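Backbone-to-sequence.
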């Protein structure tokens, strides 16, 4: 149904289609008549599956190629092009870009903050060598390159409330170090070679898909546990405030940023966010809909990571330069998540 609507609106022209997608906000996407061919690396993770679905609805199923090193679920495999791509294999990536005539590269492959600390050498390879490969590839084939960064690119010496777009960045995880590296390398390639590098620093992203080993994952796990059992044991202290965003805002931020004309961008790396809350505040909001909820707290090593991250993220530069605005606050996100997860379990 969504696909049929998308086709209908697309046939009406850019303006109408964009209005339909954004509801109240008309966003001009000049790519609709000649859709880009998009490769997503690490596409079987929490964000990749959703981003692929979102972009396929806009640009057509065949134009968005999902890739990863793991075997896809049947539904993912049947939903559109899926190929094996190891981001450590430069020649293999070259072959994919050439064979599939890729225009945009969305680079999601990474080891997240908590899992990265458990295997630093692998995180260095995937998060740093992987970026070297995709950035060279993007330069060689003149691709538009999106690499997400994170609130984890800041550290204890950064101002935490709020954390501005430009400030001191001394992260204390290999994940954060690798993301600062990607931000700086991307900016360098933009200035030195004119590479169309784009990077958003996302906060914790909340969706019903399983997260990949981060510090903000509690805000996803709590919904699954509470809706199944009524209970949740949180690995962060109840007062740990972190910036967050619902998946639908994340998808729209990524797309709106990708189609913003280069002339409007005053920088290549932007903070984006939607809300900030603590586990205690999240539990209280869920309790409005699931009154029997019982949450206990047992902080582990992820507490130290969270304590070094921003509490409130200042994304005013994105709001000024390309009109970024979120639509989901904590209440709207909680009701959407409860609906999403109830549908999954029914
Ligand atoms: N989920 C979140 O809350 C946030 C995510 N991000 C960034 O967004 C991107 C995607 O995040 P998620 O989907 O949550 O991560 P995830 O951990 O769920 O997925 C990462 C994917 O990378 C793949 N991968 C690992 N090694 C690979 C290799 N050698 N070659 C190809 N693929 C490989 C994995 O198989 C996995 O499917 C990451 O770069 C992450 O840093 C940034 C901020 C917040
Ligand atoms: C905020 C992120 O980058 C990620 N979800 C993590 O917690 O590692």
């Amino acid at each position: 149904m969504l696909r049929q609507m998308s086709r209908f609106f697309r046939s009406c022209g850019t303006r109408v289609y964009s209005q339909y997608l954004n509801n109240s906000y008309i966003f001009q996407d000049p790519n609709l008549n000649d859709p880009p061919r998009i490769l997503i690396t690490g596409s079987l993770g929490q964000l990749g599956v959703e981003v692929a679905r979102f972009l396929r609805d806009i640009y057509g199923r065949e134009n968005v190629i999902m890739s990863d090193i793991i075997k896809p679920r049947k539904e993912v495999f049947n939903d559109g092009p899926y190929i094996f791509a190891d981001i450590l294999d430069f020649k293999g990536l070259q072959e994919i870009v050439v064979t599939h005539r890729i225009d945009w590269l969305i680079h999601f492959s990474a080891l997240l903050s908590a899992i990265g600390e458990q295997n630093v050498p692998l995180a260095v390879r995937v998060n740093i060598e992987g970026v070297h490969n995709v950035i060279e590839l993007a330069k060689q084939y003149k691709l538009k390159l999106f690499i997400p960064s994170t609130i984890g690119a800041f550290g204890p010496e950064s101002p935490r409330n709020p954390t501005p777009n430009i400030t001191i960045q001394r992260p204390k995880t290999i994940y954060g170090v690798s993301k600062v590296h990607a931000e700086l390398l991307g900016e360098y390639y933009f200035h030195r070679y004119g590479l169309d590098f784009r990077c958003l620093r996302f906060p914790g992203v909340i969706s019903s898909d399983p997260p990949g080993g981060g510090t903000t994952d509690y805000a996803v796990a709590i919904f699954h546990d509470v809706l199944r059992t009524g209970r949740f044991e949180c690995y962060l202290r109840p007062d740990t405030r972190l910036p967050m965003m619902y998946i639908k805002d994340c998808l729209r931020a990524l797309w709106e940023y990708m189609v913003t004309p280069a002339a409007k961008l005053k920088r290549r790396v932007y903070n984006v966010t939607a809300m900030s809350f603590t586990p205690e505040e999240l539990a209280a909001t869920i309790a409005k809909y699931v009154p029997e909820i019982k949450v206990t707290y047992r902080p582990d090593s992820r507490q130290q990571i969270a304590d070094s991250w921003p509490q409130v993220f200042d994304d005013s530069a994105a709001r000024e330069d390309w009109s970024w605005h979120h639509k989901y606050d904590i209440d709207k996100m909680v009701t959407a998540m409860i609906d999403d997860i109830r549908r999954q379990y029914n």
